[in-house]
Design brief:
The protein has 122 residues and is mainly α. 73% of the residues lie in helices and 0% in strands. The protein contains four helices and no strands. α1 packs antiparallel against α2 and α3 packs antiparallel against α4. The two termini are 14 Å apart.
Length: 122
């Protein structure tokens, strides 16, 4: 069940990423609120990141036993731990962001996801 909660929280981030890629004025939710609307060049970077985000949702669901493994159990666990570390650091960065929107919206999503990745991985 923890894996589903983590996948759900992380999926909200994916939806926000898609909306930012589409040009909606949600850029204040990321990168310290530097851009209200993301420049087109950065949207391409977000598209690559989006592919990884989807992969990580699959990884936590695999680790939680909800979908079959694509990789060995050990590789899936290592990826899950790496993602947990990344999300833990991301939570800290969101927390110290200049952007209030990033701080109050993205920090909880990142924290919930990090906790769920840690619990699922360990």
């Amino acid at each position: 069940m923890v894996a589903v909660i983590g996948a759900s929280a992380f999926s909200v981030v994916i939806v926000l990423s898609v909306l930012i890629i589409c040009g909606l004025p949600l850029g204040e939710l990321t990168m310290g609120g530097q851009y209200k609307v993301f420049p087109k060049k950065l949207r391409f970077v977000l598209m690559a990141q989006l592919i990884l985000q989807i992969l990580f949702v699959v990884i936590i669901l695999q680790m939680g036993g909800f979908i079959p493994l694509w990789f060995s159990y050990d590789v899936t666990k290592i990826i899950c731990i790496i993602m947990a570390v990344y999300l833990s650091l991301n939570t800290i960065m969101n927390l110290i962001s200049k952007s209030k929107k990033e701080k109050y919206i993205m920090t909880p999503l990142s924290l919930i996801s990090a906790i769920c990745f840690w619990i699922t991985a360990l």
